[in-house]
Amino acid sequence: MSDRLTDLIGELARASGVNLSPHWRDGLGGGVGDDRDALARLCSEIGWAPPEVLDRRPRANALPALMFAQDGGWAIAEQWEGRDLLRVRTEAGVETRAHDDSMRFFRVAFPDAMRGGKPMRASAVFRQALLNRKSAIVTALVATVVVNLIALATSLYSMQVYDRVIPRSGYATLWVLTVGVVVALLLDFLLRTTRALLMDREAQDIDAEVSEFFFARAQAVRLDARSGGVGTMAAQLRGLEQVRSLYSSASLFLLADFPFAIFFLFVIWALGGIIVLVPLVIFPISITLALILSRLIRSGTEAAQVTGNRKNGLLVESFDAAETVKANRGGWYMLSRWNALIEAVQASETPVRKWQAVASSVFQTLQQIGYVGLIAFGAVEVSKGNMTTGGLVAAAIIGGRVNGPLMAQLPGMIVSWGYARSSLKLLDGILAQPQDHPAGGLRPDAIRPAIRFDRVEFAYMGTKETLSIPTLSIAAGEKVGLIGGIGSGKTTLLRMMAGLYAARHGQVTLGGLDMSQVAEDILRQAVGYLPQDVRLVNGTLRDNLLMGLADPGDAAILEAAEKTGLVRLISAHPMGLDLPISEGGRGLSGGQRTLTGITRMLIAQPSLWLLDEPSSNLDQNTETSVMRAVMDRIDEGHTLVLVTHKMSLLSMVDRVIVMGNGRITLDGPTREVIARLQTSGTARVAPAGGQRSIAQTTTEGAA
Ligand SMILES: Nc1ncnc2c1ncn2[C@@H]1O[C@H](COP(=O)(O)OP(=O)(O)OP(=O)(O)O)[C@@H](O)[C@H]1O
């Protein structure tokens, strides 16, 4: 394998702001080479679209791009340094090279693991995953073809036995034929087993690839655009396996078994002439029945899928909210919802099962009618001398190979298709939801932590306007307190500043750049956000402290933990930083979770600190020491926005913004705003926009 080229592709992806799957190199074989066509071969092997060939003199906005030069091999052309000079990155480092016409430039169509590349339909994702494994599918197809040919051989064996061996007592012929058929059957066994193992391995691979894609897509759905609960979302992903297994079995059916059924019709015709009419009549009948069946069960499978997902949602919810449910004796309430959903699932599944049962009996009867029809019609043909007895036996056996796929496989596949279709619809729903940030995005060297809101309006899914901020600017280096009544919009505003929610109208900029256009990793480096309720994930404390960060080493982690007091938890536990955290951060107290979140921010050192009620879970002493540690870490030019209900914390900020009913109702220097709030509820404040003087009427009270 050409490591050099894959290294360069990895670097180009990073430079283009694309999150390649960590496993993108897995399974790459050797022999791609280092020549000019190596990139095209590599893309084809990985299953990416072929690279786009750029102009011989690419425009500045087409860079960075991969470049191949006759004398220097592969490199990344980063940017133009002058009219004829290119800044080029090779494995040896960065150098400047003169442009010459032998250079070729290529753009790679990266799939982004966190976004899944271009918007597409869920079915296309499965198709692509199958197509990426063309060689395995071709092998399985060849095996299926040979297995079918062996079936043909066994039927012809019967014909020979009836026509040649029995009338002439030709035992020598019988032995030869029998040995031949036994060898063929052994080969058949080997091929079937190999096909099953191969398909199983590929199925696992496809599962891994497809589930990675959809999991990443579901993760990247913008927080404010998420519809449905956690359980429903989880259930949407559950249909993956069903769709995958249908796609693999359906492709083998359509590509091998179905065409072979047609081929076998010709064989029956060759053996018995007119008797082929029997399967020929049954064939369209079974297809028509299959189509009718698929229509009949369609609505049932869809309803069953939807209620099934709601059932899953309720299950997740009941465990997640177990404390509330138990404390409020909500068990019966949850149980009655559960029972209602079970009833709904059964109601929608009953017609599906009914039609499935009817269908399988109908298809079995059709199969038997086909057999009887073939034998009866064949007997007439044999007695007329138009075919031999052996020919009839062979035709009956082959008739089974025609009926098998059509009568036995088709009904099951139609029902699976009904379920898979509704799973695909749900997966399409995930793909259609807006994603966090565009692939690529702006990648400035540094972002000034200055925030500006311009005619911003925001509403949660399905609600009317929640936030309306005509103008707000927070300069780099400002320390701002955000206060307001319960539900006044503080958290929503903070999440917008963090780039977690996107404005429905208007623009939010960070350092002059539209926040929604900044590359995700750059944004997350610059912005530190501490949610009101810090949730931890399954793993170790270290994993939770370092999630998404480069490991600065234990000394740096412990230094930060010392400042927040988290070190007490670490030193009290025998496993120290490796102390296990269970799902949802269970095992740590609310205060310890908050300390973990703050310690993480101290390690990350963002330039924009967004803290949502950082001390609500902390005692007075811890609050003082933790907030001091935070203020010590916030450098001169760094910005702080602190949501709080505690007036005591406002001494740490120089400016206070008061929220009320989704709007800014007061904005000014801390002392003036506090004085205004203390004297009366009718202060004059300036329209929010960074002005430091109070000048507008408000009736809002602070926290
Ligand atoms: N996920 C959501 N979906 C729909 N509406 C929401 C959601 N989260 C919050 N809201 C609504 O948006 C409004 C503002 O909520 P927000 O959490 O920003 O208030 P807050 O000022 O932070 O309140 P608190 O002080 O209680 O934390 C509230 O009316 C709330 O009901």
**Main sheet summary:** 6 strands, antiparallel
Cα radius of gyration in angstroms:
34 Å
* CATH top level class name of the largest domain: Mainly Alpha
**Percent of residues in beta strands:** 5-15%
Number of helices: 19
* Cross-sheet strand order for the largest sheet: 1-6-2-3-4-5
Q: How does this structure look, described?
A:
There is one protein chain. The chain is 54% helix and 13% strand. With 703 residues, it is α+β, with helices and mostly antiparallel strands. It has 3 domains: 3-107, Cathepsin B, Chain A (Alpha-Beta Complex), CATH 3.90.70; 122-432, ABC transporter transmembrane region fold; 451-536 and 607-679, P-loop containing nucleotide triphosphate hydrolases (Rossmann fold, 3-Layer(aba) Sandwich). A 6-stranded antiparallel sheet has the order 1-6-2-3-4-5, covered by helices on one side. A 6-stranded mixed sheet has the order 12-15-16-9-17-18, sandwiched between helices. Strands 8-7-10-11 form a 4-stranded antiparallel sheet, with helices on one face. Helix 4 (134-168) packs antiparallel against helix 5 (171-220), helix 7 runs antiparallel to helix 11 and helix 8 runs antiparallel to helix 10. It starts with a helix and ends in a 24-residue tail after the last helix. The chain binds adenosine-5'-triphosphate (ATP).
